[in-house]
Every structure is written in structure tokens, then in C-alpha cells.
């Protein structure tokens, strides 16, 4: 678990200027669990931000898992999201906006240093109602230098 607190904006950066800045508190927790050839991980973060008319809360999270199918083949998936506080003025409150992304990957290890991966990604941005979809491939080279 992580906890942080501090000032995210100085009073001199605000409009109108102020003697006091704006503070935040961040709390984050994460977990990981592995068994057999499966690995699962997740994290949740909660931010509380001071504003001109009170405080607002934002969240971010992810869940991911990977499964080794054979010495060369693996699959992985990740789901993550975040949301923002609503736009709030003295007379109105806007909606809370969310961002979501889902990714699924299949990989093949060509050698100990080179992996070929193919992925599908679906993403819904904060103000969009439709999901964007992408397909991609990558050739990954990894090598230990020490």
C-alpha cells in the first residue's frame, strides 16, 4: 500500500492567486498472485484533490493476467480504467468521465531473446461513446547486459 500527500498546485499558480496552494492525498494498493503457469496482478489508486469549492475524488485501476501455454507460447490480458471528478462550478455539476482500455495478447518466443506478439486493443476515451479498436504486432528483443 502506498500513501502520499502534498501540494499539487502552488498558490502562485492559481487564478486568482492565493496564499495557500491546493493539496492532494493519494492511496494506492496492489496485489499479485502466481500459481502454476499463471500470474495475476491488480492495482487500485484513489486520489483526493482540493479544489476552489471543496475536494474531489478520482480513481484509477487495472487487472492483468498472463498464462504460459507452452515453453514458447503465452497469452495475456489487461483491463484498466480511470475516472475523473466531475466539472463542478458554484452553480452546476458535470458528469464524471471515464476511460477504459482492454488488451489481449498472444505471444510466441522465437528464441530466448526475441518474441513475436500480436495484440487486440479496445479503448473508450473520456468523452467518447464508441470504442476505438486496434490490432498490432510487435517484435520484441530483450537481452541482459549484466
Account of the 3D structure:
With 146 residues, the protein is mainly beta. It has one domain. It is 0% helix and 65% strand. It has no helices and eight strands. The model has no long low-confidence stretch (mean pLDDT 93).
Quote the beta fraction: over 45%
Report the strand count.
Answer: 8
Q: Radius of gyration from the CA trace?
A: 21 Å
Low-confidence region ranges: none
Structural class: mainly beta
Spatial strand order of the main sheet: 1-2-3-4-5-6-7-8
Mean pLDDT: 93
Distance between the termini: 31 Å
Instruction: Characterize the overall form.
Output: elongated
List the helices and strands in order. EEEEEEEE
| Largest sheet geometry | 8 strands, antiparallel
Topology:
Blueprint: E1 2-9, E2 22-35, E3 38-51, E4 54-68, E5 73-83, E6 98-109, E7 114-124, E8 132-141
Antiparallel strand pairs: 1-2, 2-3, 3-4, 4-5, 5-6, 6-7, 7-8
Amino acid at each position: 500500500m502506498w500513501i502520499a500527500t502534498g501540494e499539487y498546485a502552488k498558490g502562485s499558480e492559481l487564478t486568482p492567486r492565493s496564499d495557500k496552494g491546493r493539496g492532494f492525498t493519494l492511496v494506492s494498493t496492489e496485489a499479485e498472485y502466481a500459481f502454476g503457469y499463471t500470474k495475476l496482478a491488480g492495482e487500485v489508486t484513489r486520489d483526493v484533490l482540493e479544489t476552489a469549492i471543496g475536494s474531489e475524488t478520482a480513481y484509477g485501476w487495472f487487472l492483468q493476467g498472463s498464462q504460459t501455454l507452452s515453453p514458447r507460447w503465452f497469452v495475456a490480458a489487461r483491463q484498466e480504467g480511470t475516472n475523473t471528478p466531475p466539472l463542478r462550478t458554484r452553480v452546476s455539476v458535470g458528469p464524471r468521465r471515464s476511460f477504459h482500455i482492454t488488451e489481449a495478447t498472444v505471444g510466441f518466443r522465437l528464441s530466448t531473446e526475441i518474441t513475436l506478439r500480436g495484440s487486440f486493443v479496445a479503448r473508450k476515451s473520456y468523452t467518447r461513446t464508441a470504442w476505438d479498436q486496434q490490432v498490432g504486432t510487435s517484435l520484441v528483443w530483450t537481452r541482459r547486459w549484466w
